[in-house]
What we know:
The complex is a heterodimer.
Chain A: H1 4-24, H2 28-53, H3 57-87
Chain B: H1 2-23, H2 27-47, H3 51-76, H4 80-84, H5 89-113, H6 128-135, H7 140-160
Helix pairs in contact in B: 1-2, 2-3
Amino acid sequence: MVTLSHYLWASCILFVIGLIGVITRRNIIMLLLAIEILFNAANLALVAFAAHRGDLAGQIIVFFVMTVAAAEVTVGLAIAVLMVRSLKTSDADQLSLLKW
Amino acid sequence: MITTALFYLFAGLMLISALLVITLRHPVASTLSLLVSMFCLSGLFVLLGAYFVAVIQVLVYAGAILVLFLFVIMLLDLGKDAMTRTQGHVWLLVGFAIGGVLLWQLRTIVNHTVDGSLPPATAVQGTTEQIGQLLFTQYLLPFELTSFLLLAAIVGAVVLSRKELR
């Protein structure tokens, strides 16, 4: 019998995998990919709770999360392209212009 | 029984391919591995009765976002060592430590605040009709606001990626 806990566990482990990816990778494109994993973990938890409570609002939120993720990736990848063109590197650490 | 087997198949494959995303050296391989993860997640959505969400998961993520990722990776053509660099071993340890602590905290939350022993209700069916009805009545304002968000994202991306940006 698959219960709500099973889905929440899958979501938790997926979130932790994404978090480790964000912390350990250095390339800006890889960071964006790991952030997508985080979004997906949150979406899985939302849909699991929506099914558990019998409330469709959770699935509506997932729809909006996907829209925001699409917008975020579009702008993020444009910034990555611009960064590689101007700084000649794709290390997220090199974006230190505002540091003093 | 078939649902249980499908759950373990999809969840296991999803976690393994997510792990491959953050460990594989080549960025194109990482992206394709994330594609496998997204398809498995879409299968889990179907098991939970979220049919519309499952379809837009495939359409939006696999069809649009990951293709954009592949396009940018190939456009930049950074060379292997630039793309595969990771933080040092200290950061790897820090990552696993934070991940372990977070997993422990989540375990407490899952065990103590939710009555997770119940199976997810299958009465709620997220078909296109049901979702559409909610989206165009109760959630009409946020739905319209997302169009502004997407417009802002389009304009931002176009302005940022112009070549003669000064």
